[in-house]
Amino acid sequence: MVRLPAYILAGGESRRYGQDKTLLSWDGEPLILRTVRTAQKAASDVKIVARARDKFEFVGVPVLLDVVERVGPLGGLLTALEDCPGERCLILASDMPYLTEEWLCKLCDIREDTPVIFSQFSKGAEPLCAVYSKATLPFWWEQYRSKNFSLQKGIQRLGGMQVEFKDELESHPPFFNLNEPNALP
Fold first, then answer.
1. Cβ within 8 Å of residue 61, ≥6 positions away
2. Strand 63-65 to strand 45-50: parallel, antiparallel, or no bridges (unpaired)?
3. Structural domains of the chain, count
């Protein structure tokens, strides 16, 4: 099993959800803590990327501040890639309650020479459950300078490898994220 550093992006404003999703209780623990614990099972190191450190001190992992703010997940991705000590890293959203160690290991174990390896399911690509090459950092900085903040559009331009989730028995894929309160089971 390949262990990559993992970065959990937790700098969002949760506008669509209406309240801070990272602290939402899921099975008795804050969602951010659940995501960190799952990532720790598959990653060599786990860090949170956010707008404020104090909010996540209780989690017990390092918190990096966004190198640029108010550009959505692109700011977190830039921060993670700048900090990444190796050639690749795992990028995760903080709001994935069904995330599994098995899915993360599946992504990390793929050794294709590709800019990004991302999760895919019937509703589309999920750029926040993906393995990114550090070599893509200049591309993402150019996206920022050009005000192209969408990770979805960025991975379309970069190309990459999609890993499709096909388990029809699961009501939610492991990389399902909470964007609206009515998405709760």
1. 36, 46, 47, 48
2. parallel
3. 1
**AA letter at 183:** A
Strands (E), the chain: 5-9, 25-26, 29-30, 45-50, 63-65, 88-93, 116-121, 124-133, 161-164
Give the CA angle between residues 137, 43, 70 to the nearest 5°.
40
Q: Residue 55 belongs to what domain range?
A: 5-183
pTM score > 0.85 for this model? Answer: yes
Q: Which CATH number is 110's domain given?
A: 3.90.550.10
> Which parts of the chain register pLDDT below 70?
12-19, 122-123, 165-185
8 A C-beta contact, residue 101 and residue 42: yes
In tens, the pLDDT along 78-128 reads: 999 999 999 999 999 998 888 889 989 989 998 888 999 988 776 677 899
